[in-house]
Amino acid sequence: MYFDAHIHSAVSPDSQMDAAMVIDTLRRQGLGTTFTEHCDFPPYNFMVDFDRYEREYRPLRSDSVLMGLELTLNEEHHAQNTQIAAGDWDFILGSIHYVDGINLFYDADTQPANQLIHRYLTDMKAMVESCGFFDSLAHIDYICRYSTAANEIFLYENYPEAFDALFTALAERNLAMEISTKRLGNARNRQALFNLYKRFAKLGGQYVTIGSDAHMPEQLGKDIIKAQKIANEAGLTAVYFRERKRCACK
């Protein structure tokens, strides 16, 4: 089974999706569900309602319905992230949402794109090296969603050394990298991302997770097939995680 392994629902502060609806929608698409609710400590404080998550979602957990977290990676909250990740979860997704205190959701387009991208990739590599508590690195192209300039120049050939350092760090630790489906509707984006994942494989990467980063019903399972194609053609194995153990999608 393939899983949509990046989903936010009503226990995260930025989604209103009902858990049962999410599960049923993906089941009708032939997909499993992995909830990856936000865990982002202060000062940003974008946090899952842990009490509700435990109370309402644990009874739903099964072979096809998995519980995880999306942890924002930074040095400041390394100890808290490590402690949270040690809990009873199926999957920990590691994310970079901030660079030098810049919130990429709000402020990415206000910064010089070339410098910001380089620092973004450098920070990501540093977090891969120092944060041993996550299973897959989320949405490498997150910065492109909110910066028009970054969307145009986020290409392997523009930052080969930074990309290679990141991919090598992931491969050496046998970590997965997410294929986010958010930008796969555009052919140019698909080709640019394919080039990145193919390079990841060449440098020793083996695994990818696939996720829609859905916050609304119409996003659930979106373009999962396109992500599968990228994985297959790049020579990577699509996986999901159950009880923090890697399982091949079939």
Structure description:
This protein is α/β, with parallel strands linked by helices and 250 residues long. Helices cover 40% and strands 23% of the residues. It has 10 helices and 12 strands. The chain has helices at residues 19-28, 50-57, 78-85, 104-107, 113-130, 142-146, 148-153, 160-172, 187-202, 224-234; strands at 2-7, 31-40, 46-47, 65-72, 91-95, 98-99, 102-103, 136-137, 176-180, 207-211, 237-242, 245-248. The strands form 2 sheets. Strands 1, 2, 3, 4, 5, 8, 9, 10, 11 and 12 form a 10-stranded mixed β-sheet that branches. The chain has a two-stranded antiparallel ribbon with strand order 6-7. Helix 5 (113-130) runs parallel beside helix 8, helix 8 (160-172) packs across helix 9 and helix 9 (187-202) packs parallel to helix 10. The protein starts with a strand and ends with a strand.
The geometry reads as: globular
Report helical residue fraction.
25-40%
Biggest beta-sheet profile: 10 strands, mixed
Mean pLDDT score: 96
Spell out the helices and strands N to C. Answer: EHEEHEHEEEHHEHHHEHEHEE
Look at the helices and sheets and give the structural class.
alpha/beta
* Strand elements, count: 12
Unreliable spans: none
